[in-house]
Amino acid sequence: MRILADKEIPYVNELFGLTNQLRQYEGRFLSDKHIKNTDVLIVRSITKVDYELLHDSSVKFVGTVTSGTDHIDQDYLEKNNVKYISAPGSNAIAVVEYVFSALFWLAHRDHFFLRDKIVGIIGVGHIGNLLNQRLNSFGVQTLLYDPYLSKINTDKSWKSLEILVSESDILTFHTPLTYTGSYPTWHMVNKDIIEALPSNKTLINTSRGEVFDNSALLKALDHGKKINVILDVWEFEPKLLLPLLFCIDIGTAHIAGYSIESKIRSIIMIYNAFCQYFNISDKINVSNLFPSFINYIRIKKMDEANINSLIKIIYNIYNDHICLKSYALNSGGFDKLRKYYFFRREWSSIFVDTGKDYTTEMLKNFGFSVF
Length: 371
Ligand SMILES: NC(=O)C1=CN([C@@H]2O[C@H](COP(=O)(O)OP(=O)(O)OC[C@H]3O[C@@H](n4cnc5c(N)ncnc54)[C@H](O)[C@@H]3O)[C@@H](O)[C@H]2O)C=CC1
Ligand SMILES: O=C(O)C(=O)[C@H](O)COP(=O)(O)O
Prior knowledge:
Blueprint (H helix, E strand, L loop, with lengths): L1 E5 L5 H5 L4 E5 L14 E4 L7 H4 L6 E4 L9 H6 L3 E3 L6 H18 L8 E5 L3 H12 L3 E5 L15 H7 L2 E4 L17 H6 L5 E4 L8 H9 L5 E4 L10 H4 L4 E2 L8 H18 L17 E4 L5 H11 L2 H11 L5 H7 L10 E4 L3 H10 L2 E2 L1
Parallel strand pairs: 1-2, 1-3, 3-4, 4-5, 6-7, 6-8, 8-9, 9-10, 10-11, 12-13, 13-14
1,4-dihydronicotinamide adenine dinucleotide (NAI) binds next to helix 4 and helix 5.
């Protein structure tokens, strides 16, 4: 099988290189002339897969190692009988742990307890749902908005977007980027929403940059809007709106999903679908791809300060903010930062021993490994 894969996708050689003709390419620079004589294409979010790329190719199978699929023209693939597979949920844990790192950083800087805040979650799929579970397990109240799910959920935490905007202290967005349908998300956070947001609230975007109107956000901040803003995704990536980066609280280079575990989960999902589609029976044993535990920690007292210290052992979000502010000034800096990103580990890579039952249960629900 002739396979073409983005060179930044880890473990492609280990899984596809032994029994196939494997070529690799620079994600942003793939064009129709590279794709001739290709049966299988494996991409990241930065490669647009549509008529322009595939019209003169023999590609039969497209895999994207991403949860988001806005870079894929699914209608075109379906009309042309091209099998397509994504990696839904593969990086949900990583994004949730990124959001918690941001929340604990904010709580530490602004001297508040997370448990005293209300978190509004917009988009309650793989990421939003897991975030809701973990926040509730930590005793944080949440409000939920997802128009496609609210009809089947009668729980009192499901509200309208307007209620979340007026009643949440923190709004975190986990929707796909959509331009059509009953509830398109393009510029969902627009001038009106930003103006309606009470002061001292917090906006977090790890979904897609275009879900926020970045120019409207910059204008509001420039005009003195007093809100906290945390962005991992940007309109016009990789050329983000530089003045916006320098006036928000945390800005990172679209790395919320970049844990080594999520990278392994996503490529395994594509590999398994590839083997199934092409009836490949002698599959590679993927279980030994996952890395081992990295740490054993004994903690006597479990409070927010200790949890914050525990989280910072794994990941300090502010370091990524500093990196982006320096790299973003250089041409190609955004992509370079992502290319050389040291994939962080997930909380489950730490064994925590508190010696007490109740906190062990909470830590387990929170995502750490416990005895
Ligand atoms: N920054 C990063 O590294 C990452 C970003 N993402 C982005 O996050 C998005 C969400 O990821 P998942 O939770 O895995 O996707 P998912 O498909 O499991 O969940 C998305 C949820 O959003 C809801 N939704 C759709 N339109 C909506 C609207 N107008 N208002 C409110 N809710 C709406 C859907 O009903 C669904 O429940 C992805 O589509 C991707 O764009 C995902 C992983 C990593
Ligand atoms: O899975 C998604 O959706 C994401 O946003 C990924 O974090 C995108 O990572 P790349 O595919 O751009 O490396």
